[in-house]
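Fold this sequence, please.
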Amino acid sequence: MDMVANTSSALLQLTNVYLRQGSEKLDPPRLAPINLRVFSGERVAVLGPSGAGKSTLLHLMSLEQRSSQGEVTFKDRTRCAWSIAALSEHRAVMPQQCQAAFGLEVALVIGLGRVARTCDPFLSEIVYEAAKLAHADHLLHRRLDTLSGGECARVHLARVFAQLWDSREGMVLVDEPLATLDPGLQENILEALDTYVSHRRHAIISVLHDMNHAMHCFDRLLLIKEGNLYADVSSNRDAMPLLEDLYGLQLECVQTTSQALFVSSRAKRRRVA
């Protein structure tokens, strides 16, 4: 994927953003001060061990979570300057756990992504196209409570697609969107995400666990370790030693005939005294 030139104004900016465990100044931090910028069209993967703070960072970047200090700006506006309705037309979020009322029809769940719009004459067409892109169009007349975990994940991804379908240069944040999908569907969904954001110049920020998916499908890696932004890298080769240290693994790199890099891992052996 082509890298995005960082010459224009940032779509999203975090400046000295800090989040505490509680409300007191002596409470331990969940996230240490973080400074970063994300630009329109960028594809950013967030990686790190379980409990490192990846989802917490995503909540801050989505403007759903208020920081203890520092400032988060999206399209040059702070969190308090956005109404919920206005924000929903520029930023879409797919959390780790997606819930909807019992028994809702899939088409209605996808349409909920556009509920803030007072006039939406092409709603039905957008719902169908979003479902098709998310490989969920065959589920449109099913009820959500009859679906498998992987099917539900595709429905909620379609909801995200529908939400920003007719917007440009927005922001899509997804938390482990591939967790419940088989390998074939993972590849299909990654391709669908790429198509979706590329056509609209949306930035995408995705929490992932698979290093190969992150390295092949995203421009940039944010590595989170113990609540800190451990590294921000855009080169796969630069990322390798950082990923080894981040996860405590030894990585082996294989280069295919098409020059693609794949990594496999094995746990570091502890030395016996």
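The helical segments are 54-61, 84-88, 106-111, 123-133, 149-163, 183-200, 211-217, 236-247. The longest strand covers residues 29-38.
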